[in-house]
Write a structure and sequence with these properties.
This protein is of the alpha+beta class. It has 3 domains: 224 residues, no CATH class; 96 residues, Pdz3 Domain; 318 residues, 2-enoyl-CoA Hydratase, Chain A, domain 1, CATH 3.90.226.10. The strands form 5 sheets. Strands 4, 5, 6, 7, 8 and 9 form a 6-stranded antiparallel beta sheet that branches. The longest helix has 26 residues.
C-alpha cells in the first residue's frame, strides 16, 4: 500500500500494531494464502484483560467504571481499527456483532475474549473472500474516461449490504490506486504487480497476528474509549516505548519501515554500527536475516516489521547478517554487522548558532537555535543512580552553556516536532529559563491539586527567548510553552495553537498490578498507560483541546491538518482552575507582541516563498474539504499535478517521524523565525 494511503490521524503516539491495522485499502491475490484463525487467547491474556477492565475506574481520571457506555464506544473503535474504510465487513456482520455492543465491559471483566477473537477471525475470513475478486479487478480493463467518483469520507458510507455492492466499492478502490500509480508515472504492468504484491503482503501479515496482538488491539479499543491516550502496551510494544524514552538500544542503528511487505531502510543512525560499517544505505531492502557468522538466513518477505526488528536487534558484540537488495538492484548482498549499544542522538536536543540581522555596531546578531524533538529521560538509569543517564534537561543545559560561551544574543527553542514525553523533564527544562516558581498545576480524579515547581535558584539562560511550536507540539512541550507565555518570559511563535493534549499519563506494570506483593514480578504482562491527571498552566488554564496560542502566527500546512487533540475521538474537555502565584518577567508586553507581529506580517506579504506556501495551503484546504475523489483520469492527474494534499500529508508526517535533528536546516521558515527574533531583540532594546 502506498504510504499516503495509510496515514493515520496524528495524536497520541500509538503502538505500531495500531498503525498496521488502520490501513484503508487492503486485499490480496489468490496466491497460496488462506485465512487462518488466530490462536486462542491463553490464561495470561484473559487475566490481563480482566485485571485492567476491573481497575480502569480506580486508575482513570474520569473515575468512570468500564460500563455499557465504554462498551459501545470500544465496540466502534475495535471495528474501526480493523475496517476503517468499510471495505471488508458486510452490514450483516455489523448487525450480528452489534448484539454484543453493550456487553464488552462484562466480557472483559470476566476475562472473556471470545467476542474479540470471533470478530478478528471474521475479518481474516472477509480478507480471504476478496482475494479472487480483487485479482480480477486488478487484471480487468478500466474505463478512466468515465465521470465517476470514489467516496473518501468513510463516515459518509454505510457498510456494503451484499457482495455486488462491495465488489463495486473495490472496483473503485483499485481504479483509484491505479490512478495514484499513474500520477507517479508507474508503468501499467508495474502498477498491477505492485498492487498484487501490496495486497498479498497485507493478507500475509494479518494472518501472522497472534493472540497477544489481538488482545492488545481489543483492550486498547476499550481503554481509548475513556480518552485517546489510555492504552495497553503488550510487552514488545512496551519495550519499544522504553527504548524511545532511554534514547538507546542494542542493535545496528537503522530505522526500518514496511512498504508493500518489503522491509526498507529509512534512516541510518549517525555514529551507529550500520553507519560505521558503511555498506547499508537508505532505501536498501532487507530480504533475509541470519544470526551470528553462520546462522541460517531467514526470509523476511511479508514478515511483520516488529518481528524483523526483533531479529535484527540483539546483544552488543554479537553479529547479525543482513541479506540486502541495494536500491535499484535485484542482486542480494550479505552484510555482516556487529551489534552495539546505539545512542539515538537524532532524538536528543541539538543546538546551532546562526547569524541574522544587523546590530547597531554593524555586526550580525547571533541566534542560538535548539531543536528539541522530545522530553526524554532514562528512568531506569536515574533510578539506579547512573551518572551518565540520558536527560532532556542535562542536554539542553549543555547546549545553553555552549551558546553562552559563543556569545549568543537570543535563544530559539524549536518544539515543532516535540510530541511530549517525560513530565518531570518538562518541568526541570522550563526551570532553565525561569528563576523558581510553578511550572504546571496538576489535578487528579478526586479533584486534588498539586503544583510542580522549578525549585532550582537561578536561570541557565536569562536572555531573550523565542519558543517555536506547531500543531504537533503536544503534552510536555505545551507545559513548557504555556509556562514561558504565562510568565511573559518569551515569545511563542508558530502555528495558531499547539496540539491541545492537557492530560498526564502514568505507566502501570500490569504484572505488578496482578502480583502486588510478589518479590519477583513476571516481565511479560505488558503495561497500562492510563490518563490519571489533567495539567494546567500557572495561569489556571488547561491546554486540553485548546493548546497554547501563538503570539505570532506563521503560515504552515500543519496548521490546517486534522492532527490536534480536538480531532481525536473521546478527547476530554477543556477546563480551568485557580491561578497560581508567580512573578512576571518584563520580556513580553502587548506592545512588543503587536510590533513584532506587524513586522512579520509585512515580511510574509512580500515573500515569494510564503506566497507559494499560502497558495499551497489554500489548495490543501480545498482538497481536504472534499468527501470524494474523481476517477476520471484527466481530471485526477490535473488535480494531482496542481497539488497533492495526500502526498503533502505523507511528507509532513514523515518529517515528524524521521526528522534528522543532527542538522538544523536553515529554511525560509526558520529565516522568518530568526527575523522575528531580531525584531524582538530590537523591541526589547528600545
Amino acid at each position: 500500500m502506498r504510504r499516503s494511503e495509510r496515514l493515520i490521524r496524528w495524536g497520541a503516539r500509538r503502538p505500531v500494531l495500531s498503525v498496521l491495522l488502520l490501513l484503508s485499502a487492503v486485499i490480496c491475490t489468490p496466491l497460496a494464502i488462506r485465512a487462518l484463525e488466530v490462536d486462542e487467547p491463553n490464561a495470561q491474556d484473559r487475566q490481563i484483560v480482566r485485571t485492567i477492565a476491573k481497575r480502569m475506574k480506580l486508575f482513570h481520571l474520569s473515575n468512570q467504571d468500564m460500563d455499557d457506555d465504554i462498551s459501545k464506544k470500544g465496540f466502534q473503535l475495535y471495528l474501526k481499527s480493523l475496517d476503517p474504510s468499510k471495505m471488508y465487513f458486510y452490514q450483516s456482520d455489523i448487525d450480528e456483532f452489534s448484539a454484543s455492543a453493550d456487553e464488552l465491559d462484562d466480557l472483559a471483566k470476566s476475562g472473556d475474549l471470545s467476542f474479540a477473537f470471533a470478530v478478528f477471525n471474521r475479518f481474516l475470513k472477509r480478507i480471504e473472500e476478496r482475494l479472487v475478486v480483487i485479482n480480477q479487478l486488478i487484471e480487468s480493463e478500466h474505463d478512466f474516461t468515465l465521470d465517476e467518483v470514489m467516496m473518501t469520507d468513510s463516515d459518509e458510507l454505510e457498510f456494503a449490504k451484499n457482495p455486488a455492492e462491495l465488489k463495486d466499492r473495490w472496483r473503485k478502490r483499485i481504479k483509484y490506486s491505479m490512478l495514484v500509480e499513474k500520477s507517479e508515472e508507474t508503468a501499467n504492468e508495474d502498477a498491477k504487480n505492485k498492487l498484487n504484491r501490496r495486497y498479498t503482503s497485507f493478507a500475509k501479515r494479518m494472518n501472522q497476528f497472534d493472540a497477544e496482538e489481538v488482545t492488545e488491539l481489543f483492550l486498547t479499543s476499550l481503554t481509548t474509549a475513556y480518552d485517546p491516550h489510555s492504552t495497553y502496551f503488550s510487552q514488545s510494544t512496551f519495550d519499544n516505548f522504553m527504548i524511545q524514552m532511554r534514547l538507546n538500544l542494542e542493535g545496528i542503528g537503522a530505522s526500518l519501515q514496511s512498504e508493500d511487505g518489503v522491509t526498507v531502510v529509512k534512516r541510518i543512525v549517525p555514529g551507529g554500527a550500520a553507519d560505521r560499517n558503511g555498506k547499508l544505505k537508505v532505501e536498501d531492502r532487507i530480504v533475509s536475516v541470519g544470526q551470528g557468522d553462520d546462522g541460517e538466513m531467514v526470509d523476511v518477505a511479508d514478515m511483520k516489521l516488529d518481528d524483523v526488528v526483533a531479529m535484527i536487534r540483539g546483544a552488543a558484540g554479537t553479529t547479525v547478517r543482513l541479506g540486502v537488495m541495494p536500491e535499484g538492484s535485484n542482486e542480494i548482498k550479505t552484510y555482516p554487522i556487529v551489534r552495539e549499544k546505539i545512542e539515538l542522538k537524532d532524538s536528543e536536543a541539538q543546538g546551532q548558532v546562526f547569524d541574522a540581522g544587523t546590530k547597531p555596531d554593524g555586526s550580525a546578531y547571533k541566534i542560538g537555535v535548539i531543536d528539541l524533538p522530545s522530553f526524554y529521560s532514562d528512568m531506569e538509569g536515574a533510578r539506579l543512580g547512573r551518572a551518565d543517564y540520558k536527560s532532556t534537561t542535562r542536554d539542553v543545559r549543555r547546549v545553553l552553556e555552549e551558546f553562552k560561551e559563543e556569545g549568543v544574543d537570543a535563544v530559539v527553542l524549536d518544539l515543532r516536532s516535540n510530541g511530549g514525553g517525560s513530565l518531570p523533564e518538562s518541568v526541570s527544562c522550563t526551570g532553565l529559563f525561569i528563576d523558581q516558581g510553578p511550572v504546571v498545576q496538576v489535578k487528579n480524579s478526586a479533584g486534588e491539586k498539586e503544583r510542580l515547581d522549578d525549585e532550582v535558584a537561578g536561570m541557565t539562560w536569562d536572555g531573550p527567548l523565542v519558543v517555536v511550536t506547531s500543531k504537533f507540539s503536544a503534552s510536555a512541550s505545551e507545559i513548557l510553552a504555556g509556562a514561558i507565555q504565562d510568565y511573559q518570559r518569551g515569545l511563542v511563535v508558530g502555528d495558531t495553537a499547539t496540539h491541545g493534549k492537557g492530560t498526564v499519563q502514568q505507566l502501570r506494570d500490569v504484572g505488578r498490578i496482578i502480583f502486588p506483593i510478589a518479590a519477583a514480578v513476571p516481565k511479560n504482562f505488558g503495561a497500562l498507560k492510563v490518563t490519571m491527571q489533567q495539567f494546567y498552566r500557572p495561569s489556571g488554564d488547561s491546554t486540553q483541546k485548546r493548546g497554547v496560542l501563538a503570539d505570532v502566527v506563521l503560515p504552515s500546512i500543519s496548521d490546517q491538518m486534522d492532527v490536534g487533540e480536538a480531532d481525536l475521538q473521546h478527547a476530554l474537555e477543556f477546563d480551568q482552575i485557580e491561578k497560581a502565584e508567580f512573578n512576571l518577567y518584563p520580556y513580553v508586553t502587548p506592545e512588543i507582541v503587536k510590533a513584532v507581529r506587524a513586522k512579520s506580517d509585512s515580511r510574509i506579504k512580500g515573500s515569494e516563498d510564503f506566497a507559494d506556501l499560502m497558495s499551497d495551503i489554500e489548495r490543501y484546504k480545498v482538497q481536504k474539504g472534499r468527501k470524494s475523489v474523481t476517477l476520471n483520469e484527466a481530471k485526477f492527474l490535473e488535480q494531482r499535478k496542481e497539488f497533492d494534499a495526500e502526498k503533502q500529508d505523507e511528507e509532513t508526517l514523515e518529517q515528524q517521524v524521521n526528522k534528522d535533528s543532527t542538522n538544523i536546516e536553515r529554511t525560509f521558515y526558520l529565516d522568518e523565525v530568526l527575523a522575528i527574533t531580531v525584531d524582538y531583540l530590537e523591541a526589547l532594546r528600545n
